[in-house]
Amino acid sequence: MLLKKVIPAILLLSVCGQALAAEIITVSRFEIGKDKWPFNREEVMLTCEKDGSLFAINPGTLMQYPLNELADAHFKAGQVKAQPISVIQIEDKANPGKMMSLQPIIERTQALCNK
After folding, report:
1. Which of 19, 20, 46, 78 is the most buried (most CB within 10 A)?
2. What is the predicted pLDDT for the residue at 21?
């Protein structure tokens, strides 16, 4: 009797979980271009959450890094486990003292929101 209730509940949860999951893609320095790559890692994962918050994710540690103000607000409020993007962002060698632009990464991540 219990199995008749538990199995449908498990199936329902798995379907709902998949519907709520955000899409995640992996991008590399090779794909974006060495001259535009803003990170000290060879590749990162990117995700757009259902609320529009954008994150880069370190595939080795699964640590998240906020890419927009909404994601940063979640981080600062302690709603997500994350670190500042500056932890993995590198300096722009063409402009000493400035960090590499995150714009190509943000645009790529934003495109996930529209899927």
Report:
1. 46
2. 58
| pTM recorded for the entire structure | 0.79
How would you write 15-76 as a 3-class SS string? HHHHHHCCCEEEEEHHHHCCCCCCECCCEEEEEECCCCCEEEECCCCCCEEECCHHHHHHHH
Q: Count CB-CB contacts under 10 A for residue 37.
A: 21
Which residue in this structure is represented by tokens 């540690």? 61
Give the integer Cα–Cα distance in Å for 15 and 103: 34
> Which residue do the tokens 């979980």 mark?
17
Which residue, chain included where needed, has tokens 């529209």? 114
Distance CA(58)–CA(54), nearest Å, equals 14
Q: What is the pLDDT of residue 22?
A: 78
Query: Which two structure tokens, joined as six digits, stand for 33?
Result: 């271009």
